[in-house]
Amino acid sequence: MFEFITNFLEKSGYLGVFALMALENVFPPIPSEMIMPFAGFVAARGDLNVVGVLAAGTAGSVAGALPWYYAARYYGCARLKRLAGKHARWLTVSPEDIDTAMDTFRKHGKSAVLFGRLIPAVRTLISVPAGLCNMSLGQFLLYSSIGSLAWTGLLTAAGFLLEDKYQEVSKYVDPVSKTILGAMLAWYLYRVITWRKPENADSRKKEHEAG
């Protein structure tokens, strides 16, 4: 993985950094925890400029967040709740969970986007409530850009400062990333297996049938 990413970034340059970070946000084939440190490592070797790497990575991260934002905005909260009502077990959320999440996001929307962009996995998912709550595009871009800049800056600096030692560190990055993805999958399966319909949902259904 180390050789593949570094060779790809050497050949594709800033456009490659942009493209990988955009794809990582739409569907993460390679997590940003690997992309940006590798880009920083390539910059430390003198093949790329660190400022250009940071700009390309941040721009790609924000661009990759937009499809989820627009998809959620187009789909809408009402349709998502109907979908959750039919497939709550597989989505692992109920319509009530969505209402709670939306209320929380409306109270903390700006900070949720800003700090959510700093958390793996949440970085992509935070675009969904932003779109569902019709957060203005300007606000979404502003706070998403600030959060993305902080995240890509931290990762780029790590790769840049480690420089020649980074190849040794890279031996541990791939297994750790796979462990994180495996843990996320295990958590999802656990949620599916242990999911139970909320009691208040059953009560409302019985009241409706009785009426």
Describe this structure in words.
It is a single chain. With 211 residues, the protein is mainly alpha-helical. The protein has one domain (2-210). It is 84% helix and 0% strand. Helix 2 (32-44) packs antiparallel against helix 10 (166-194) and helix 4 (77-86) crosses helix 6. The radius of gyration is 20 Å and the shape is globular. The termini are far apart. Mean pLDDT is 80; it is low at 205-211. Keywords: Cell membrane, Membrane, Transmembrane, Transmembrane helix. InterPro entries: DedA_domain (IPR051311), VTT_dom (IPR032816). The chain crosses the membrane at residues 12-30, 50-72, 140-160, 172-190. Its main location: membrane. It is found in: Cell membrane.
Radius of gyration equals: 20 Å
Describe the global form: globular
Q: What is the arithmetic mean of pLDDT?
A: 80
Order of helices and strands: HHHHHHHHHHH
The number of distinct β-strands equals 0
Provide the low-confidence segments as ranges: 205-211
Helix content: over 70%
Q: What is the number of helices?
A: 11
Strand content: under 5%
Quick one: biggest sheet?
A: none
Oligomeric nature of the chains: single chain
Helix- and strand-based class?
Answer: mainly alpha
- How far apart are the first and last residues' alpha carbons, in Å? 61 Å
Domain VTT: 30-159
Subcellular location: Cell membrane
Organism: Massilia suwonensis
Membrane topology: Multi-pass membrane protein
